[in-house]
Amino acid sequence: MTREIKIALSFQKQAYAVFFAVILSLVKRVTDSNEIGVALEAPMAILAFTFYADTYTQEITSKRSEIWRLYPMKQKMHSIYRRIVIQEMFLLAIAAVSYGLFFLFQNPDINEMGQSGFTNAKYQFVVYFASVAVTLVFWGLFANLFSCLFRNMWMGIGGCLLLWMLTNSSIGDRQFGCWNLFSYTFRKFGNSSDLSWICGKVVCICIAIMAVAALPKIIEKRG
User: Fold this and answer.
1) What are phi and psi of 191, to 5 degrees?
2) Which stretches of the chain drop beneath a pLDDT of 50?
């Protein structure tokens, strides 16, 4: 496990993830606590697919590739899945810290100050954290899948970037509605009882499950 942590979380990866979170919380302006989740979801997706893209392809480009090919398929997949879990846990921590940094640097207003206001703020964070967890898993797995398919991490990043630009736009919002991958970002703030945006997250989960199922076959064929 220690070896997988060193590979999955290199110093460079950790440094740019932390730098990304700090800069984002400084330059992305918010005035209300409701806006923090919206300000974070799409950028966190970018962080995820750039972070995950080399999960497997680094074995192709590194000096470990010849030894890696000798491993049985089951051992390879266990190694990759461990790296995915390690990266997900790290990025979830970054996502939580990023949320707190907005309060530290910008001190946004909390709706309905008082006990109900703080309760509302906690609810907002729980909803954000659940949503961003799905977002990180989806974009990370999708980037890794594309990278394995084309044996190139930049193809993984490029493919995700095109999908990101399509779905994180007014066109994507109009075309897909509550089924959009970024349904949380485009949800209606005024009605907290409207949970139709969860449909978009269900789509993300379903695609992520299919990506996990397809990954072993792709790696077996592409090597």
Assistant:
1) -125, 95
2) 113-115
